Amino acid sequence: MKNFHFQILKQTVVVLDNARIHLAKKVKERIPYWEQRGLFLFFLPPYSPHLNIIERLWKELKSRWIKPDDYTSF
Fold first, then answer.
1. Residue 47 — left, alpha, or beta (φ > 0 → left; ψ -120 to 50 → alpha)?
2. Could you give the 3-state DSSP secondary structure of residue 2?
3. What is the largest CA-CA distance in the chain?
4. How would residue 58 be classed by pLDDT, with cut points 50, 70 and 90?
5. 10, 37 in Cβ contact below 8 A?
6. d(Cα 22, Cα 24) in Å, to the nearest integer?
7. Residue 21 in contact with residue 27, Cβ under 8 Å?
């Protein structure tokens, strides 16, 4: 981000997860400055299965395909 905000020519949104480095004090201090330059940060919610396609598959498998008896042996 340090150099990236100098390269943008239009308003830009960067999507970030909640990794510790993304929530660091130095990052939070720079957000107002980046926003003035047209760089906006969007933080994903801590748990967002709707944004992860595999979560839909797991839900389908658990509800329709996998039965509790399937867990009793290999």
1. beta
2. coil
3. 59
4. confident
5. no
6. 6
7. yes
40 three-class SS: strand
pLDDT at 35: 93
CB contact at 8 A, 39 and 10: no
Listed residue (34, 42, 54) closest to 17, CA to CA: 42
Q: What is the mean pLDDT of the chain?
A: 84
CA distance 58 to 63: 9
**Is 0.85 surpassed by the pTM of this model?**
no
Q: Does the structure show a pLDDT above 80 at 47?
A: no
